[in-house]
């Protein structure tokens, strides 16, 4: 499936598996199934995997020298690596987010006991939940953040458990298919994830949440990131609610 942006078109084949033999086993033992699957999906002929660059281990190094890091969780741990390498290398953070998710419950023998569909996912804007760690870096000319919109299974135990009065329902994310991709190469690409209707008049964070179809906490992080990138400006208040407006 192709994603077209102002930077051009890039073509993908969902579900393709091009295995890239690692040159070292460093980091592989800590690799979860989602991370491993996304790395296989991203790999191209000629890529090198698990390569040491200076004192850092990089998930994939492209033939053209681009450094690719697969990040399934928060972006915070990447901070020191980016600080050390970004000025001298082109880098790409690949972040998978669920566009569609099934909850798959399995018993102790691995047999599926129940399958259900998860509520609506926020889509590409979910990346702001992670980008909040260093939003201004998106303005760096060497950095690309690639958001993969995935169909995934979240494999869990037969039922949630209670631990110290708290309900826990952990699981493992498994990639089924990559449906699409969105590249963020500059601040304007992040702004483009907002609906056009928000470009015409000031809006509150709650109005942003309604327009995006997400929770207020995620909308707050979207606004924070876009303000840090100078894509949103202060537009005063409506009552006690701060207002934002798109920078002209």
Could you characterize the architecture of this molecule?
29% of the residues are buried. The longest helix has 13 residues, at 216-228. The chain has two domains: 3-193, no CATH class; 195-248, Arc Repressor Mutant, subunit A. Helix 5 crosses helix 6. The radius of gyration is 20 Å and the shape is globular. The strands form four sheets. Strands 3, 4, 5, 6, 7, 8 and 11 form a seven-stranded mixed β-sheet that branches. Strands 12-14-13 form a three-stranded antiparallel β-sheet. Strands 1-2 form a two-stranded antiparallel ribbon. With 248 residues, the chain is α+β, with helices and mostly antiparallel strands. 19% of the residues lie in helices and 38% in strands.
Terminus-to-terminus distance:
32 Å
Strand content: 35-45%
Percent in helix? 10-25%
Main sheet: strands, sense, barrel? 7 strands, mixed
- How many structural domains does the protein architecture include? 2
Structural class: alpha+beta
User: How many β-strand runs?
Assistant: 14
Instruction: Estimate the global geometry from the Cα principal axes.
Output: globular
Mean pLDDT: 86
Q: How large, in whole angstroms, is the Cα Rg?
A: 20 Å
- Low-confidence sequence ranges: 1-29
Report the total helices: 6
Order of helices and strands: EEHEEEHEEHEEEEHEHHEE
Question: In terms of topology, how is this protein built?
Answer:
Blueprint: E1 3-5, E2 8-10, H1 33-42, E3 48-53, E4 56-61, E5 67-70, H2 79-85, E6 91-106, E7 112-117, H3 128-131, E8 143-156, E9 161-163, E10 166-168, E11 171-184, H4 187-191, E12 203-204, H5 205-212, H6 216-228, E13 232-238, E14 241-246
Parallel strand pairs: 5-6, 6-8
Antiparallel strand pairs: 1-2, 3-4, 4-5, 6-7, 8-11, 9-10, 12-14, 13-14
Helix pairs in contact: 5-6
């Amino acid at each position: 499936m192709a994603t077209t942006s102002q930077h051009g078109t890039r073509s993908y084949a969902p579900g393709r598996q091009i295995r890239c033999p690692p040159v070292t086993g460093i980091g592989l033992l800590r690799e979860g199934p989602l991370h491993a699957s996304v790395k296989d999906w991203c790999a191209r002929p000629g890529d090198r995997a698990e390569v040491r660059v200076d004192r850092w281990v990089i998930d994939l190094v492209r033939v053209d020298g681009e450094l690719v890091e697969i990040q399934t969780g928060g972006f915070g741990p990447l901070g020191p690596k980016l600080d050390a390498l970004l000025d001298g290398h082109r880098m790409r953070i690949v972040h998978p987010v669920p566009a569609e998710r099934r909850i798959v419950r399995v018993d102790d023998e691995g047999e599926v006991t129940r399958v259900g569909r998860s509520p609506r996912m926020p889509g590409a804007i979910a990346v702001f939940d992670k980008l909040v760690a260093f939003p201004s870096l998106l303005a760096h000319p060497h950095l690309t953040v690639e958001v993969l919109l995935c169909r995934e299974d979240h494999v869990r135990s037969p039922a949630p458990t209670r631990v110290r009065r708290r309900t826990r329902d952990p699981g493992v994310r498994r990639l089924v298919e990559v449906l699409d991709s969105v590249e963020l190469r500059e601040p304007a690409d992040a702004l483009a994830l907002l609906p056009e209707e928000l470009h015409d008049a000031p809006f509150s964070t709650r109005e942003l949440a309604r327009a995006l179809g997400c929770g207020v906490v995620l909308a707050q992080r979207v606004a924070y990131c876009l303000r840090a990138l100078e894509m949103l400006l202060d537009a005063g208040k409506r009552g006690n609610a701060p207002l934002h407006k798109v920078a002209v």
